[in-house]
Amino acid sequence: MLTQIYIHNLITIQELNLEFKKGTTVITGETGAGKSILIDAILLALGARATNDWVCPGQEKVEISLTFDVSKLPEAQHWLKSHDLLDPSTQDCILRRTLYQDGRSRSYINGMPSTLQPLRELSEMLIQIHGQHEHQSLLKTDKQRALLDRYAGHSYLVDSVQTLAEEWHTLHQEMQVLQDLIQDRASRGDFLKFQLQELEELNLGPEEFEALDLEHRQLAHADELLQHINLTLGALTDTEEQNALQMLNHALHTLEKVRQIDPKIATWIETIQNTIIQLSDLEDELRHYLDSCSLDPERLSWIEQRISTLFDIARKHKVGPNELVELQQKLTTEYNQLELSDTRFAELTKKLNQLAEQYHTAADKLSNSRKQAAKKLITELTPVIHELALPHAEFAIQFDNTDTSAINAYGKDKIIFQIKTNDGQPLQPLAKIASGGELSRIALAIHMTTALEHSTPTLIFDEVDVGIGGSTAEITGQLLRRLGKTHQVLCITHQPQVAAQGHQHIRVAKAQRDNAHHTHIAILSLEEKIKELARMLGGVQITTKVLAHAKEMIEKVI
């Protein structure tokens, strides 16, 4: 369960340290006070998309941390342990996120840096949020199917069907490409054979073009090379009157005469000796180069013709001459694939049939599990809908399996939630319900019923009671309080009948200070709770009768 939230510099919250208890916690406040800012902070800490708009004006960053007690959550403990994030010295798991003014963000799990994906994985084991607009998403059949799957708890079946479907579609796509290739094989094969024959006759070796290019430059400038290398040798060693080697030897002998005077001279002598050795090595290399460099007009003509041929063929294939070897390898691979295409096609056909068989087996298991879960959900959901001022309502789940041969990632089932709210009416899809109030009550009933089956310990209801009032609101509050016996429930509400049912009451208020708006969040005492309920009941002027009514509402709950 969520035990603590810490917020620093989040929009209008400078600093907040709030502790949560078990049971049902209600969150109230004036319209525009910022009640949802707590939920927003929780979502941000759990990895929701963030911008620098969340940072308090004039501040550098936002800090949000959530502390969860995971002592009774073996799934979360196992996840933390498998990721080397479990702290054996405590039962707590701390999620922290920092948002910077420049748009950067950093996340941490038990003090260790984390990317957002692992953070979101872990958060699904810790908390579940039902938003005020979720009843609109419930109109979509894919959302209805996902909700039923979550209620059924058969994620391993869903994952298996999705994996098999994805594998089948990947192979099927490869098979279609291969099929097109086979149809075009005859003409393509002849064309490839012609191109390969031309390249094979060229008999081009690896990096041959680069070697030819270098040798061409050497032969084309042989006169110039010989002249300048001879001049270099003359300056280094060959000139009798004066050359570099003679001058270095003279300098060496000169320093040898004063070696004993200063120890530094020995280092200079060593440097000159090394230079003489390097100069001798250089002389050997230059003379060897002279021996290998010669004027060979015939060789130069042959190389020029060879390079010209390479450029002509490369131009034909729209590649560089240095890419011809790689092109030959590529065309050879394609030609071999054409030759083996029949074998590969047979392999793919066999594999696709096997995958299809495995898929249909897994999809049938998923369908059966969904149907069993649907019966259970209808049984549990119907009395909850009746309690919410819809005594004659009837809920059903239709399975539309018209195309059982198709291979879809979600399986064979098209799930349609159906409802009728009065006797004599036919069952209709949720999307055809005219009354927004009825839809919001049905959505609330679905959320609460599916939450009972969910292993997530903390449930957040963000103004899901919009559109109800009076006795229906009171029943909603009772249901939320009842849910608080098995789960930790956080509920943002405008309804005093709902707020009265909370085990813990948090009030959000906006204040003006230092020419800026600030959000003040506090846990209310019993006396403060009575005043808050009176405000919700009575509006601007709170009379003694309204206060008495608020007190009576709380006493009825206690």
Helix and strand arrangement:
Layout: E1 2-10, E2 13-19, E3 24-29, H1 37-45, E4 61-69, H2 74-82, E5 92-100, E6 105-109, E7 112-114, H3 116-126, E8 127-130, H4 134-137, H5 141-152, H6 155-183, H7 185-202, H8 208-220, H9 222-238, H10 244-256, H11 264-292, H12 297-317, H13 324-339, H14 341-387, E9 394-400, E10 414-420, E11 428-429, H15 436-452, E12 458-462, H16 470-483, E13 488-492, H17 496-499, E14 504-513, E15 516-523, H18 526-538, H19 544-557
Parallel strand pairs: 3-13, 3-14, 8-12, 12-13
Antiparallel strand pairs: 1-2, 1-4, 4-5, 5-6, 6-7, 9-10, 10-11, 14-15
Helix pairs in contact: 5-14, 6-14, 7-13, 8-12, 9-11, 10-11, 14-15, 18-19
Question: Can you put this structure into words, describing what you see?
Answer:
The model has no long low-confidence stretch (mean pLDDT 84). Strand 5 and strand 6 form a beta hairpin. The chain has a 6-stranded antiparallel sheet, with helices on one face. 27% of the residues are buried. Among the domains are: 1-132 and 454-523, P-loop containing nucleotide triphosphate hydrolases (Rossmann fold), CATH 3.40.50; 186-339, no CATH class; 528-558, no CATH class. The protein has helices spanning 37-45, 74-82, 116-126, 134-137, 141-152, 155-183, 185-202, 208-220, 222-238, 244-256, 264-292, 297-317, 324-339, 341-387, 436-452, 470-483, 496-499, 526-538, 544-557; strands spanning 2-10, 13-19, 24-29, 61-69, 92-100, 105-109, 112-114, 127-130, 394-400, 414-420, 428-429, 458-462, 488-492, 504-513, 516-523. Helix 6 packs antiparallel against helix 14 (341-387) and helix 8 (208-220) packs across helix 12. It has 558 residues and is of the alpha/beta class.
